[in-house]
Amino acid sequence: MVIIVGRLIGIDYGDARTGIAVSDPTGLLAVAVVTIHEKNIDILVKEIADTIEKYETDEFVVGYPKDMMGNPGPRAVKTERFAKKLQRETNIPVVLFDERYSTQTALQYLNATDTRGKKRKNILDTVSAAIILQDYMDMKKNLK
Questions:
Q1: Could you give the number of structural domains in the chain?
Q2: Are strands 57-64 and 7-12 parallel, antiparallel or unpaired?
Q3: Which letter does DSSP use for residue 33 in this model?
Q4: Fewest CB atoms within 10 A around its CB: which of 93, 98, 101, 118?
C-alpha cells in the first residue's frame, strides 16, 4: 500500500550555504535538491519559499545543531531564529531535528562516490539536508 502525503522539506541551515532536500510523494525517500548561497536570513527565507513553491509541502525539517551530549550547540540560537522566521513567512510548520553526524555521514558518502574539490563543497550541505530529512522520516516511520 502506497500512501501519498504532502512533501517534507529538509534544510541544513548554514551561515553561507543552506542545503535543501525534499521527500518523494510517498514520504519514504529524501532527495537532495539545491544548495542556496545566501548569508542574509530574509533573502534566504524568500529563496527557500521560491524554491519549494512547486511542492505541496506539509512540513519543514530543519537540522538542529546539538553537541555530543545532546544539548543545543553553539549555532542553536541562530537555527531557532531561522526556523521561527521560516515558519512565520511561509505559514508551514517547522520541526527542529537533531542533525548530529549528518555532515560526517555526508562526507563519507561523498568520499565513497569520489566527489572532490569544488563540486564537493557545493553539494555537501544539500547531501546533509537529505540525510537530516531521511533520518527524520525513518524515525517517524519507526514510531508507527
A1: 1
A2: parallel
A3: E
A4: 118
Which residue range forms the structural domain that includes residue 12? 7-143
Identify whether 1 is part of a domain.
Answer: no
Percent of the chain residues topping a pLDDT of 90: 47
Distance between CA atoms of 55 and 34, rounded to whole angstroms? Answer: 14
Which amino acid would we find at residue 106? Answer: A
> Does residue 17 come out as left (phi exceeding 0), alpha (psi in the -120 to 50 range) or beta?
beta
Residue pLDDT, tens place only, 78-87: 999 999 999 9
Q: Could you tell me the pLDDT band of residue 1, with boundaries at 50, 70 and 90?
A: very low
- The answer to the question of residue 2 being in a domain is no
CATH code assigned at 22: 3.30.420.140
